[in-house]
Every structure is written in C-alpha cells, then in structure tokens.
Amino acid sequence: MTEIPQAGAAHVHVLADGYAREDERGDRVGSTVTLITEGDVAVIVDPGLVSSRDALLAALAERGVAPGDVTDVVFSHHHPDHTVNAALFPAARIHDFWAVYDGDLWISRDAEGTELSPSIRLIATPGHTDQDISTVASTPDGVYACTHAWWAADGPADDPFSPDPSALARSRQRLLDIATVIIPGHGPSFRPGHQTPR
C-alpha cells in the first residue's frame, strides 16, 4: 500500500469543473481539469474536453503558471474526454497507468506509488476502467484525490462503464480511507460523507 503523507506542501486548484449532460445537439462532456503545484513541480490532471481552451489557459495563467511551465500531465484513464488537450503543455512528461512518456521516450513502470513530488503520488484505482489511476496530493488543508472513481458527488452510484463494479467499490473505499476532498471526473470537488456512493 502506497504511503500518503497526511500533511504536505502541495497546492490544489481546479481549473475547470467537469460535467456530463445532454442538450438538443447531443452529449456535452467536460473533464474536471486540476492543477497541483509543489515547489517547481506543476501537474495537470486530466486535460480533457473543455468548453473553451482559452478559458482553461486563462485559469492556469491566473495561478501564475504558463503552459510551458507544466512539468507533468496525468491521465486518470485513456478516454479522450480526459486526454484530448495534453498537447497544450508541450514540456510536460505524461503519466498513465503503465508508463511515463517524455518526448519520444517511453519508460515503462507501474503507476502505483509513483511520486511526482514529496506530496504528490499516483495510485492504482481501477473501476471506471481497468487502468484507472488517481492523483493524490497532500496539502496543509488535507488530502485531495483527483479520480474518476466518482463522476460527481451524487454519482452515479453505479458507474455505467465499469467493467468490474467490485474493483470500483474497493478503489472508492481506498480513496475514502485517505482523502478529505474528492475531485471527481465530471463535477466540482466535494468532501465525502455518508451519502457518498460507495
């Protein structure tokens, strides 16, 4: 089991709250995009579909970070709605469940326990897909988990795409055991409670 510091020096900023809804033109899906910083490390989690790339980059600039300053991009999983804007961050290493990609270099490794900084870790949390990972950041205010184990605070309780609901339940419990704030795949951050789907 990966050890997660309970108090760290990371700072977490949600740049875009995700959503999933239908309108008259079809499905609208936006990924929750998060910036995590610690020292010289700047991590973007799930740079996927957003309604405006300009708005996303403006939110990043408000935090004093330029696209070229981003050191790492993390994909919670490989669905395009969570990955499509990775090229906005040209200097970043890209992390997924089984490798790190740096330019043309492919470095195979298991994401479980990968340390991006002293307060930022990757952990395996299969459920939405078999390859899902979560980014866990220890801050002075608590432990934040960027994850697709939940779409949003209110569910769905049963992920319609999960290939293994029992794995999802185990991943959710693992995250609930360590996180004080959940940043879900398609919704605003929330503090878990008794109503949080398990």
Q: Structural class of the secondary elements?
A: mainly beta
CATH superfamily caption: Ribonuclease Z/Hydroxyacylglutathione hydrolase-like
Mean pLDDT: 96
Q: Which radius of gyration do the C-alpha atoms yield?
A: 15 Å
Number of helices: 2
Distance between the termini: 20 Å
Percent helix range: 10-25%
- The CATH first-level class comes to Alpha Beta
Strand order of the largest sheet: 1-4-5-6-7-8-9
CATH architecture call = 4-Layer Sandwich
State the domain count.
Answer: 1
By DSSP, the count of extended strands is: 14
Characterize the structure shown.
This protein is mostly beta strands. The protein has a single domain, classed as Ribonuclease Z/Hydroxyacylglutathione hydrolase-like (Metallo-beta-lactamase, Chain A, 4-Layer Sandwich), CATH 3.60.15. The chain contains two helices and 14 strands. Strands 1-4-5-6-7-8-9 form a seven-stranded mixed sheet, with helices on one face. Strands 10-11-12-13-14 form a five-stranded mixed sheet, with helices on one face. The chain has a two-stranded antiparallel sheet with strand order 2-3. A hairpin with a 2-residue loop joins strand 2 and strand 3.
Features:
198 residues; Metallo-beta-lactamase, Chain A; five-stranded mixed beta sheet; 2 helices
Give a brief outline of the structure.
The protein has 198 residues and is mainly β.
Describe the SSE topology.
Elements: E1 11-16, E2 19-23, E3 26-30, E4 33-38, E5 41-45, H1 53-62, E6 72-74, E7 93-95, E8 99-102, E9 105-108, E10 115-117, E11 120-124, E12 133-139, E13 142-146, H2 165-178, E14 181-183
Parallel strand pairs: 5-6, 6-7, 13-14
Antiparallel strand pairs: 1-4, 2-3, 4-5, 7-8, 8-9, 10-11, 11-12, 12-13
